[in-house]
Amino acid sequence: MMEIMEGSHAVAEIVKYCRPQVIAAYPITPQTHIVEALAQMVANCEIDAEYITVESEFSALSACLGASAAGSRVYSATTSQGLALMFEVCFNVAGMRQPVVMSIANRSLGAPLSIWNDQQDSISLRDSGWIQLYAEDNQEAADLHLIAYRVCEDHSVLLPAFVCFDGFILSHTYEPVDMPTQEEVDGYLPPFVPYQRLDAKDPLSMGMYATPEYYMEFRYEIDRAMQRAKQVLVRAGTEFSEQFGRDYTGLVEGYRLDGADTALVAMGSICGTVKDAVDEMRDAGKKVGLLKIRTFRPFPAPEIADALRDVGTVAVLDKNISLGNSGAVGTEVKAALYGSGIRVLDYIIGLGGRDVRKEDIAKIVDLAEKGEGDMFYGLRTEVL
Amino acid sequence: MPLQVGCAARPGKARENKTGAWRVFRPVVEREVCTKCGMCALVCPEGCVEETEDETYVVDLDYCKGCGICAEVCPKKAIRMEREEK
Hints:
- The complex is a heterodimer of chains A (about 375) and B (about 90).
- In chain A, about 40% of the residues lie in helices and about 20% in strands.
- With about 375 residues, chain A is α/β, with parallel strands linked by helices.
- Chain A folds into two domains: about 1-245, Thiamin diphosphate (ThDP)-binding fold, Pyr/PP domains (Rossmann fold), CATH 3.40.50.970; about 250-384, Rossmann fold (3-Layer(aba) Sandwich).
- In chain A, the strands form three sheets. In chain A, strands 3-2-4-5-7-6-12 form a seven-stranded mixed beta sheet, with helices on both faces.
- In chain A, strand 13 (about 315-320), helix 12 and strand 14 (about 345-350) form a beta-alpha-beta unit.
- Chain A starts with a strand and ends in an 8-residue tail after the last strand.
- With about 90 residues, chain B is an alpha+beta fold.
- Chain B has one domain: Alpha-Beta Plaits (2-Layer Sandwich).
- Helix content of chain B is about 15%, strand content about 20%.
- In chain B, the strands form two sheets. Chain B has a two-stranded antiparallel sheet. In chain B, strands 2-3 form a two-stranded antiparallel sheet.
- Chain B is elongated.
- The chains are: A alpha/beta (about 375), B alpha+beta (about 90).
- The interface of A and B includes residues 209, 210, 211 and 217 of A.
């Protein structure tokens, strides 16, 4: 049913329909509304879940890890400093191969303290073994949770996932969302079947130590599971499209790329702005398109190379900065297109909530076509 | 040993994992000097010094980490630590 929903509440609602058995989270802006809503649902007996109140994000994810290992479908949500505090547990969840799904209401990292949006938090955990999905709007933010549980719990994957959606820009914004019913979700997402679980009657330890003779092979296995996740994502996305009519068949999504000379590459809510900007530039006769990266981990390098094979210039929009190098997405897109002869330029934009408008997108396209890039875009040089 | 998903292990696996590979120095017992007092077996943190049927003491090198506590406490200095040749 179509409803006007705040992004956070759309996420909370869809998580309810995913029937998590254990929820543990610690409130942090701009994620708070999600767990606030879920706590209310648990208190109202709308979900048959254990809601574990914890004293920190480290404890929140640790509780989820334990509950998942014991065989429960679990859920958490966080952002920014909270995710940073979970760093150690994130690697453990992936290494123990627990299919934890966690929403990230993307926010910048301090210092300086900022509660506003960019994607530095989740990007900084790109090597942790979590699948990373980025939503463009509230509908996609909700839908990707269903897909995430399906993929993570698949026994050929068994990895955790971040479902990332931009803090405030989506989390606090009301948009129409087509919310499925419980029956529809049940038809798509079967109950969690653990691959193995903690059981006092049949003892098992997880995440045991590995000597140098074994450690590399464990890391290799996680990487292979991540690679297998690509196919499972495509399959889960295709089935989602068939059942709900919204297309998630691709790890990336092209928008007006046919005949494009210049392509923008972006992730998250900025894609909506870019699509409008592309429409205006196309109306003005400029051959511009967008490639939206929905799945950042596993990184869809061949899919990106294929989608961009006919363009001459690529402008990557990065809402993050790997300090001392450049944006993470730009670096990886350059690697994906290595040897193709396509010019790839990176633009650091929108850090710490800096607004990015349609005219900025048009200016970035102009810069890219002049070959000017690999830069922070929109710096206020007067304060430097 | 094949890998288990999530590095999971059933109880007792520590015995199957030979952990002696960490060792840099190995204890060597000189039997003619040893008075069979058993101090080495008593203090071994790994519990891998065992009394044999003829009441001498042997070190299970599959698990000995080479910490040298046995050599340190031996009242007769009957145990010396020799560098492992890798």
